[in-house]
Structure prediction request, 256 residues.
Amino acid sequence: MVNVDSQILQVASSACNAAGVLLAAVAVAAVFHRNFSKLFWYVPAMLLSAWLETKLGPAFAGSLSSDLAAYRHMALDVFAFSVIALVFVWLRLKTARKTIAMQSGLQQSKRIGATNMDAVANPELRNIMGRFLAAADSADTASLAEIYDRTFTCIRVADDGGFVHLSRQQMLAFLDQTVKDAARSSGSGHAAVQTRETTIHHAELVGDTGLVLMTRVKDLGNGWEPMLYNLVWKKRDGNWHLLREFVHQKSTPEWK
Prediction:
């Protein structure tokens, strides 16, 4: 009978340990997520688990009263519960952040390119269009400098009457500044623009000139909005370059 009783106590003690770690994990997670109301329930429950585990231990099972040794054992249980829970929650949050980052990268990679890209029949122009969209969304000024024609101009108008006329140098300087701002604020140096979808509606060639009409749904800081693009491409020395970019958007563009 003694062996049976010892096994039962051991199982019960292990159950209290498991419950204590689980309750501590919930409490630690509540602190991370600033949901402090949960602490009023889970912290006392964790202390109760530590007290029960102490009383079920071989050294204290025969007495209902608690002495200094019992309190030390209980404090050690609480410390162990908290440390194990902290490590577990930290690993879980780290894994979750990594998963979110990977999903975000996948979503970003899916946004590069466009729906109905086959509307651009010329394979060389279609390829440079893909490079342009990727470079524009990631503020890759080095790639854009190669894609922009030497006489490139960007003209943007808004529903409220806003108007912006940017030269090649001004456009590249603005994008360079956004990369520097991103580096200062987040340390990433990456000034990606949020783009939800891109659709090419029409494309045609007129000699060495390519015309592409497309819409993009982007977030420029004022929420998602549709933007209409009319791109004029020019083939020089065997390579396509973006000559003009006409954009109509909802909110007034702000360029510093």
Summary: The radius of gyration is 31 Å. The first strand starts at residue 148 and ends at 158. The first helix runs from residue 2 to 32. Residues 2-108 form one domain.
